[in-house]
């Protein structure tokens, strides 16, 4: 029995796209790691660049493994590829369910990380400077308690009285609230991407197992 060429090249094409997506994720992650505006506050509240780099490397490795296994009709590589995709699919499924069920805990997690940076008066100059940049960008003031977090309210907290969040000439919204909102939006995007990847993984799992079985039957016939 011959190996179905359509399945073989569909799996190869799938893994080529998989490998290219890994390259893109890795490249973007390294760019953000090297060139992004380093900010202690956002690093505490929204970590993940290192995780993206690791994901990009893993996807690249799996894509190469699947491409080579498909072209060479190597059952060992295809089996390793199948198991790897299955494990990643299970982890993504578990993470998606956990993210949907425990989404409210994101607020507590971000707040706990930012609480380590209070009181602001005891923080080094770079932390206070980063917070001022963040205040100007997100239109907020302070971390947990608003303007009360500052001994002397900095210029970045000042606002126009016509702005709804402006109270007595300064922003009343703590930056932790703005960062939590930003994190929740990012979580929605991440869950959507994870769902799309999970669908792709299903196709990869099916194609790799079909090709694995076809190669096994071909080898059995040739040795009979």
List the helices and strands and how they pair.
Blueprint (H helix, E strand, L loop, with lengths): L4 H31 L4 H6 L3 H24 L2 H27 L3 H11 L9 H14 L27 E2 L2 E2 L3 H49 L1
Antiparallel strand pairs: 1-2
Can you walk through the features of this model?
By secondary structure, the protein is mostly helical. It folds into two domains: 5-102 and 194-223, no CATH class; 108-177, Cd81 Antigen, Extracellular Domain, Chain: A (Orthogonal Bundle), CATH 1.10.1450. It contains seven helices and two strands. It has a two-stranded antiparallel sheet. A hairpin with a 2-residue loop joins strand 1 and strand 2. Helix 3 (49-72) runs antiparallel to helix 4 and helix 4 (75-101) packs antiparallel against helix 7 (175-223).
Which terms summarize this structure?
224 residues; mainly alpha; Cd81 Antigen, Extracellular Domain, Chain: A
Task: Quickly describe the structure.
This protein has 224 residues and is mainly α. The chain has seven helices and two strands, in the order ααααααββα.
């Amino acid at each position: 029995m011959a190996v179905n060429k359509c399945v073989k090249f569909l799996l190869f094409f799938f893994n080529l796209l998989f490998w290219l997506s890994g390259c893109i994720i890795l490249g973007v992650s390294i760019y953000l790691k090297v060139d992004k505006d380093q900010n202690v506050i956002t690093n505490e509240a929204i970590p993940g660049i290192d995780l993206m780099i690791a994901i990009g490397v893993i996807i690249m490795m799996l894509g190469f493994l699947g491409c080579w296994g498909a072209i060479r009709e190597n059952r060992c590589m295809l089996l390793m590829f199948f198991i790897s995709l299955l494990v990643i699919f299970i982890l993504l499924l578990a993470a998606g369910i956990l993210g949907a069920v425990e989404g409210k805990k994101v607020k507590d997690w971000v707040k706990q990380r930012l609480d380590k940076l209070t009181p602001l008066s005891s923080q080094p100059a770079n932390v206070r400077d980063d917070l001022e940049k963040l205040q100007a960008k997100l239109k907020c003031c302070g971390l947990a308690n608003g303007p009360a977090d500052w001994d002397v309210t900095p210029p970045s907290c000042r606002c126009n009285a016509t702005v709804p969040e402006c109270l007595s000439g300064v922003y009343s919204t703590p930056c932790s609230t703005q960062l939590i909102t930003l994190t929740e939006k990012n979580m929605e995007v991440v869950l959507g991407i994870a769902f799309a990847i999970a669908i792709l993984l299903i196709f990869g799992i099916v194609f790799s197992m079909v090709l694995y079985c076809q190669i096994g039957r071909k080898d059995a016939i040739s040795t009979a």
